Amino acid sequence: MKIRNQTAALLTGVALFAFSSNGPATAADLTGIAAPVEYQSPWQIRLRGLGVVTEDEGYVDGVAGSDLSYSDTVIPELDISYYFTDNIAAELILGTTYANVTGNGSLTSMGRVGKTWLLPPTLTLQYHFTDFGKFKPYVGAGATYAIFYSQDADGVDDLDIENTFGAALQVGFDYMIDDHWGWNVDVKKIFLEPDFDVVVGGNKLSGKAKLNPWLIGTGVTYRF
């Protein structure tokens, strides 16, 4: 009986030692595994002030020395981004602007040809670099579809600028103040050369407007 009691006491001591040695480590391991990962939404929006700086080139077919220029503008712009991964995102840029079209070269005497509003929704696919802490640079490329509306003729009888597709290149960065708010700087080059028709003195003429604008913007980023 005495031997049995001693054996039981010994086994109990070993079990308690094993629990005290391994229990806390196991609990720490389990705590590390079970710790919840903070969820970050894939959606992000930005509100920017945007400068639209055009290339100021173009011509009327068959008119030697013809050239065109377009007014530059500053507008508000909204963009919506969706992150497929930490590095890959798609961005939809929304904004509208106007341009005064002016004759240059042999068209200088015409003065302002007309005015048009432009809606160019632009979609880019971006690569975001994630190794710089709060500083998050990115590059992108995509396409735009330029919609010209509210066109008014001035120095001509009629003006019709055709809607057209164009390509877009992009570079920029976000500097994140916290998990949600940041400051953004963004530069895009849009390759946009729509065809147009004008009527002058009853004669219909055609040409090409080489807008090819730079879009230079800065504003606020919000990550949901």
Automatic annotation (TrEMBL):
<comment type="similarity">
    <text>Belongs to the OmpW/AlkL family.</text>
</comment>
<feature type="signal peptide">
    <location>
        <begin position="1"/>
        <end position="27"/>
    </location>
</feature>
<dbReference type="GO" id="GO:0055085">
    <property type="term" value="P:transmembrane transport"/>
</dbReference>
<dbReference type="Pfam" id="PF03922">
    <property type="entry name" value="OmpW"/>
</dbReference>
<keyword id="KW-0732">Signal</keyword>
<dbReference type="InterPro" id="IPR011250">
    <property type="entry name" value="OMP/PagP_B-barrel"/>
</dbReference>
<protein>
    <submittedName>
        <fullName>OmpW family protein</fullName>
    </submittedName>
</protein>
<dbReference type="GO" id="GO:0019867">
    <property type="term" value="C:outer membrane"/>
</dbReference>
<dbReference type="InterPro" id="IPR005618">
    <property type="entry name" value="OMPW"/>
</dbReference>
